[in-house]
Amino acid sequence: MITPRSPKQICPTCGAFVTESFCSRCGEKLVEQADFAFSTFAADVVKEFTNLDGRVLHSVAAILSQPGLLTIEYFRGRRVAYLRPVQLFVLANVLYFLIQPIIGFNTFTTPLRIHMNSLWHSPLAQRLVDKKVHDRTPEFRDYEREFNQVIHTQSRSLVFIMIPLFAVAVSLVYFGSKRFFVEHLIFSLHYYAFFLMFLCLLGGFLRLAPYLRVISSPFMTSDAFVSSLIGIGVLVYLHLALKRVYQQGTLWTFAKAIVLTSFVLIIVQFYRFVLFFTAYLAI
User: Fold this and answer.
1) List of residues 6+ apart from 131 with CB closer than 8 A
2) Of 88, 125, 214, 280, which is most buried by a Cβ count within 10 Å?
3) Which residues of the chain have pLDDT under 50?
């Protein structure tokens, strides 16, 4: 049974003496009898969901409409109203892999056929797969099905490897800016959260466009056109985000955005290479 709070109590979390409802050292709330009333419990549940929903909406709106703002706010210490960078990236990651089967984008869930025929490491992939099973045998279909299932599972976690790689690229481009590497890492987390959300929105638009009669030409749904849209989106967003966060001139920032966009494409190819080998070794 909970006893009424005395004028001075010891905080159960940090051991400090507490004379108010909350510990001044760690912020822990002291337990009182009223905390176990159903009305108090219900109010806490509503408060938690309201705060979470508010932070999610603020974060998503900011990451999509105001490039670089969340990074600047995080540096300034204004963090309560937004999801933390890792939380936001995890949310974007979950949304992407939930929506990906519907929109059909395979940027991060590259199937075996693409690994064997359309990427820079395809010759190596063909040789390695042929050692296990020839692509003209019936067994290949079973192998392909299992490989693609492993790819789909592993891609959700391996996508994290792109974040530190991009942070290294940003730190090289802004070498001499006297910023900590963690600052570049925060920028990278926010960028990839945007990138995943952008793919969701673009894929949804391309999926709905024929029904809305927005797209009439087959070329506008081709891989080349879609890749161009992604590249332009990345370039524009990076330019705006870099300018806001690193505060350099427009032309200089645009040149760096072009370089970093190239790095993004290289990192995606490296990610696919790693993804192939992790799936290959897992089967």
Assistant:
1) none
2) 88
3) 1-7
CA distance 219 to 185: 37
The residues facing 17 across adjacent strands are 10
> By C-alpha distance, which of 157, 166, 161 is closest to 109?
157
How far lies 214's CA from each of 1, 210, 229, 263, in Å? 66, 6, 15, 32
- Burial class of residue 4 (count of CB atoms within 10 Å of its CB; 0-12, 13-18, 19+): exposed
Strands (E), the chain: 9-10, 17-18
pLDDT tens per residue, range 130-186: 888 876 677 888 888 899 889 888 888 888 999 999 999 999 999 888 889 999 999
In this predicted structure, what is the pLDDT of residue 256?
95
| pLDDT for residue 5 | 46
Instruction: Measure the CA–CA gap between 165 and 156, rounded to whole angstroms.
Output: 17
**Residues whose CB falls within 8 Å of the CB of residue 144, separated by 6 or more in sequence, listed in order:** 111, 112, 113
CB-based contacts of 209: which residues, under 8 Å, 6+ apart? 215, 220, 221
Residue keyed to tokens 């879609």 = 226
Q: 90, 120, 95: which is closest to 105 by C-alpha?
A: 95
Locus of tokens 């070794």: 281
Are 259 and 85 contacting, i.e. CB atoms less than 8 angstroms apart?
A: no
CA–CA separation, 114 vs 127, rounded Å? 14
Side chain identity at 240, as an amino acid letter? Answer: L
Taking each helix axis from N to C terminus, what angle separates 85-103 and 69-76, rounded to the nearest 10 degrees?
160
